[in-house]
Amino acid sequence: MDIVLSGIRPTGQLHLGNYFGALRNFVRMQHDAKCYFFIADYHALTTHDDPTRLHENVRTVLAEYLAAGIDPDVATVYVQSDVPQVTELSLLLGMHAYVGELERTASFKDKVRKNPSNVNAGLLTYPVLMAADILLHRATHVPVGKDQEQHLELTRVFARRFNNMYGVEYFPESQPYNFGADLVKIPGLDGTGKMGKSENNGIFLADSDEAIRKKVMRAVTDSGPTEPDSPLSEGVANIFTIMQAVSAPDTVAFFREQYARCEIRYGDLKKQLAEDIIKAIAPIRERIEAIKGDEAYLRRVVSEGAEKARASASQTVADVREIMGIRPF
Ligand code: TYM
After folding, report:
1. What is the rounded distance in angstroms from the CA atom of residue 108 to the CA atom of residue 243?
2. Which residues are annotated as a binding site for ATP?
3. What's the CA gap between 34 and 16, in Å, rounded?
4. How far apart are CA 162 and CA 175, in angstroms?
5. Contact indicator for 273, 303 with CB cutoff of 8 Å
6. Where is ATP bound in this sequence (predicted)?
7. pLDDT tier at 198 (50, 70, 90 boundaries)?
8. What is the ipTM, given to two decimal places?
9. pTM for the whole thing?
């Protein structure tokens, strides 16, 4: 049976990138495989969040997981730090991760560039902890967005190296997964780059209809095509990319055709996009607040999830200790 695992850092409210890159697929996969979905609070520490806010963000992401439709009676939902076995596996896998390859990771280089005063060791070993998350349950499929591809590549490198070194077939080659399609990268609406929590360009699952309309109507475009079939500028291309994730295929085709014929009105395009986003995520928003306020339910979900995750994790750590020669007298 396939084993699916994925996680999201609790660094704020979830946005459309998190949803279409990851969370929507979690929900779609939960009935067809053994699934583990967790909240990566250790990973969030690499950027030194405020402790009170970190805890609040764990609650937010948990409530948003459940509001999006993850069923904790079917999938195992847990908080990373509730399963301390991951830290031991991370230490053990770290023996097979070379500093050079960690230094070359794009996400590490990006963090160094953006904040040279906080190049902590946790940032460098981030992909090792992430590999430990995945290999802790020997996951075969990892639903993630495009930005996590390199981390998955490293996970496979560590797993392969471990298997080769000890002559075992213990860890699987975990694959990033999006139902056979390319991994998703949802762009921002500000004309550049990806939608991100730190880029300040997010449309959040919890945004009101009005906030969504406002953000979409402000999206960067251009002065319009002047020749048939002209290439899309980055801002317009981004609108179409988001539209591909949220709208019906014939809606996308309709506006693409209008663009190709130089008849497009960006106002109409944006209005349609805003309404389609609202249709896709408003039902989730409506559930978030109720779930967030149900303290007893949230507590039950994480404690049952942690118990199930710890059972699987303990087995893996015991096996890995044995394989590596850490044995009791
Ligand atoms: P994080 O918290 O940055 O993002 C969570 C998930 O959302 C996806 N995502 C996007 N997908 C498409 N377009 C975007 N603009 C976009 N922005 C974010 C991410 O690809 C991810 O799937 N390192 C991970 C957390 C993690 C993890 C793991 C994931 C820790 N351990 C083990 C999978 C397996 C991260 O920082 O994701």
Report:
1. 31
2. 9-11, 17-18, 145-147, 186, 194-198
3. 25
4. 17
5. no
6. 9-11, 17-18, 145-147, 186, 194-198
7. confident
8. 0.99
9. 0.97
